[in-house]
Specification:
Layout (H helix, E strand, L loop, with lengths): L9 E4 L6 H6 L13 H11 L3 E8 L2 E13 L9 E10 L8 H15 L4 E6 L7 H6 L3 E7 L2 E7 L1
Length: about 160
């Protein structure tokens, strides 16, 4: 599945028996490990959450450069508002040596495009606050903090 123009080799692919080992070997910068769960945890959660998880690998040509997982139409805070259902970016892991090359932006845009296709109007994301956290990256892409937290993480939203 390609979510970008045909002139670019960037594409998303499903996790398959043929590429799962490469996905599990993907590593972010060591200083980022506290900010994002490893792919193995994400794949376990994708299995547990079934249809509400949308895991994809990010390829540049034949090279695996990252992993993303979106969440689709989940109840956000049922006790406070049972009608509040949200979709967004759950995980984003770009391999350590390929960061800063536009893959993260591509991933966010790919999730945005998928959510638009599904009729969603807002894309949510959470991030670890702090110097090494990805907050500035998300703000540069147009996300704004909602004032909410999810656990210890900042909740951001992008109108799509």
């Amino acid at each position: 599945m390609s979510t970008s123009q045909t002139s670019t080799p960037l594409r998303l692919e499903r996790v398959t028996p043929e590429n799962v080992d490469a996905a599990l070997a993907l590593r972010v910068h060591p200083h980022q490990e506290r900010n994002v769960a490893p792919v193995v945890r994400s794949l376990a959660e994708a299995y547990a959450f079934g249809e509400t998880a949308w895991p994809r690998l990010i390829f540049d040509g034949d090279e695996l450069v990252g992993f993303l997982m979106a969440f689709l139409d989940i109840p956000w805070n049922e006790e406070k508002d049972p009608t509040d259902r949200r979709s967004g970016l759950w995980r984003l892991n770009i391999t350590a040596d390929r960061q800063g090359k536009g893959y993260g932006r591509f991933a966010v845009e790919a999730v945005r495009d998928e959510l638009r296709r599904r009729g969603t109007r807002q894309l949510y994301v959470t991030w670890e606050p702090g110097e090494d956290g990805p907050g500035e990256f998300y703000r540069r892409l147009g996300f704004r903090a909602t004032g909410e937290t999810s656990g210890d993480q900042t909740v951001g939203v992008l109108d799509i």
